[in-house]
Amino acid sequence: xxxxxxxxxxxxxxxxxxxxxxxxxxxxxxxxxxxxxxxxxxxxxxxxxxxxxxxxxxxxxxxxxxxxxxxxxxxxxxxxxxxxxxxxxxxxxxxxxxxxxxxxxxxxxxxxxxxxxxxxxxxxxxxxxxxxxxxxxxxxxxxxxxxxxxxxxxxxxxxxxxxxxxxxxxxxxxxxxxxxxxxxxxxxxxxxxxxxxxxxxxxxxxxxxxxxxxxxxxxxxxxxxxxxxxxxxxxxxxxxxxxxxxxxxxxxxxxxxxxxxxxxxxxxxxxxxxxxxxxxxxxxxxxxxxxxxxxxxxxxxxxxxxxxxxxxxxxxxxxxxxxxxxxxxxxxxxxxxxxxxxxxxxxxxxxxxxxxxxxxxxxxxxxxxxxxxxxxxxxxxxxxxxxxxxxxxxxxxxxxxxxxxxxxxxxxxxxxxxxxxxxxxxxxxxxxxxxxxxxxxxxxxxxxxxxxxxxxxxxxxxxxxxxxxxxxxxxxxxxxxxxxxxxxxxxxxxxxxxxxxxxxxxxxxxxxxxxxxxxxxxxxxxxxxxxxxxxxxxxxxxxxxxxxxxxxxxxxxxxxxxxxxxxxxxxxxxxxxxxxxxxxxxxxxxxxxxxxxxxxxxxxxxxxxxxxxxxxxxxxxxxxxxxxxxxxxxxxxxxxxxxxxxxxxxxxxxxxxxxxxxxxxxxxxxxxxxxxxxxxxxxxxxxxxxxxxxxxxxxxxxxxxxxxxxxxxxxxxxxxxxxxxxxxxxxxxxxxxxxxxxxxxxxxxxxxxx
Amino acid sequence: xxxxxxxxxxxxxxxxxxxxxxxxxxxxxxxxxxxxxxxxxxxxxxxxxxxxxxxxxxxxxxxxxxxxxxxxxxxxxxxxxxxxxxxxxxxxxxxxxxxxxxxxxxxxxxxxxxxxxxxxxxxxxxxxxxxxxxxxxxxxxxxxxxxxxxxxxxxxxxx
Lengths: 754, 159
Hints:
Mean pLDDT of chain A: 90
Helix content of chain A: 25-40%
Oligomer: heterodimer
Radius of gyration of chain B: 15 Å
Strand order of the largest sheet of chain A: 11-12-9-19-16-17-18
CATH superfamily of the largest domain in chain B: Beta-grasp domain
CATH architecture of the largest domain in chain A: 2-Layer Sandwich
Number of domains of chain A: 3
Structural class of chain B: alpha+beta
Low-confidence stretches of chain B: none
Strand content of chain B: 5-15%
Number of domains of chain B: 2
CATH class of the largest domain in chain B: Alpha Beta
Strand order of the largest sheet of chain B: 2-1-5-3-4
Number of strands of chain A: 31
Number of strands of chain B: 5
Distance between the termini of chain A: 54 Å
CATH class of the largest domain in chain A: Alpha Beta
Shape of chain B: globular
Mean pLDDT of chain B: 95
CATH topology of the largest domain in chain A: Aldehyde Oxidoreductase, domain 4
Shape of chain A: globular
CATH architecture of the largest domain in chain B: Roll
């Protein structure tokens, strides 16, 4: 992508060529008049900050949000609004189109869609890209192929069934004739779009299921890859924003005299989130910021009374029923209270998980050029529609007057939504020039949308053999910023209780309960979201039940899964097959050499742990971890992962996501965000020590062969890795670890730690 | 404003800037070389790594005032020698990058290691020591290790 470029307007002049009566709206295909053969499809979006699964387009006229275009030169362009943040979506999506369209995958150019009223649902979140686009893109590729074949057959006067497509050409083997796609697009685009084009089966795949390297790789290693901070525009300024150290505080006063005396500083301007120092280059902006920051006075507001201790008290009070907040539960099976009554024994434990920051390597930044009648934005964002809508609202413009160019993201992980982009819009409006707002590392650490803090109380009633009859998981936590104060609908609870309400084990009575407490900081989506703490607590507690029953933790889990049928899980209430989870669990155990001795340590200070989960009702994952403890330190030694994500599109990318998920989980075991008088205490990677090169364990990934619809891989292994390593560390330390991050005091094998 | 003269990727450059201005911002905001990335500004993440007279340094911790007569190589200039080519080829062969943001710094750091190792392949301990202060939030460390081994085995040697 050229700098400042990357816009496409394929969707201009969409024809209403779609037909009524297609079974599911998002699968409808329409021809588009934009030159060449263009097919538009619609896929269900996933807005980052609202977590709705809106935009399935039930009643409205068909509005496509992805396009496949075959041009007159035979080239293929896939236009789709999925943001690339390292998950490899720009690499895997063209594989799907090329497979069905019968073209070389390298001939498919991926263009980033620009959101607009007609381009809804471009969000990238929830490990949903492959899941939501697999069928629509396959159908679009197959429809284009069938239309090209039909056009060639008509020209030759032969039956379409006697022709076949191969590498961008239609062949008629009987006569030896062939025509390139480019020669056929005009005739093909005049033909009817097939109602339900036949899809190639997996036995015929030549691309899907084979390793494909990242298409962005060459530009990344040459330094040419463009992130939003790399975009340059004529006359642009650079800005740094001073924000109140306490969330919710407001600006009372400042003195810009010293700052504006610095060469290159243009303007010091209040914006809704703080004070923007706008200059000719970044260094001048940072120097000006330093000069003015000393003079700023804030009204800090009531969050300044909240520290980490306050949060611990709030969570404990909520669990004890003294929090004053409402309780909301989701249940499965029989009544838990009466099932508990029948139990031979009850087991209880409490688990805790800290606030966490995203800390992507690229600090948040965005560039905006806000004019009186239009606005253009360059941002690495997961939510371009949200940016467009909110920027338009702030500027009093129609959404169509706001253009959002999505660049590569230097790590997304759920963080890159709208807030920092809107700062650039506000600063540009104040400066009457294009302005790039760059967050410093402390800004990024202290004004994040944090992963929620939580405290979990688990209780199980077991029979005389130690088998669970009743399971109660009560969780006190804070709600997403966008959800706080909103009614606890069942849909919202499925998210807040993700991994708890749909824990996989066949237990007759299950209840998961959410107790909301107020948060002094903003909360957002953090890779694998609430499944992180919920699955950590569930998988730790299952280990405790196994230990109480005197059973091996892997075999104890298998007994609660194998042949135990289905249940509904995840935000979509998807049907989950316990046998698929049992298979990945067995596979991970087998590949890791989980022996008769199970998790018990053979060497002092070493331990092995296992965990498994079904992510959001879709991706089945199990991990066996080896870990060691000693001298108050810990280390993950080896990770063996088995995963069933349905049909594997790009196994190379799947392995990369597992490695990344392991690194993410191991970082979380070492990092935490703490508060003192409303202020986040961490500022850099020194006090938020993410995983380093030396501490990365070996990772082995085994992908189950499957023809089931493909699911997602960005998030699912994270909570499983986290829980498996915690279980391994518990085995190594000889005591149950119930807090994330790991408390070095808990690692003393003698049991005299904190 | 003081004037500073130094070379960047073999080309002489003259920049008027405060002496304390970090090389990172000189490259990105004055010279248009945006391949060098800002990650922390305090020298703890390695995203801004460049070669200064052939040695890997953090450009956020190097001020323009220190550059008189010296030579800077950025990711854009990491090419046309055997180490640079081998490292980049290995990075692609191992499919190292995820988001890619830290990778220019990782590549520069790795090239510095291989150049410094001379004709010898670096040991695992040497690789760890050289790479441990270059952070990657996506977790590409295993592939970085494999790529460095591959580049070393493939004959990446200082010329």
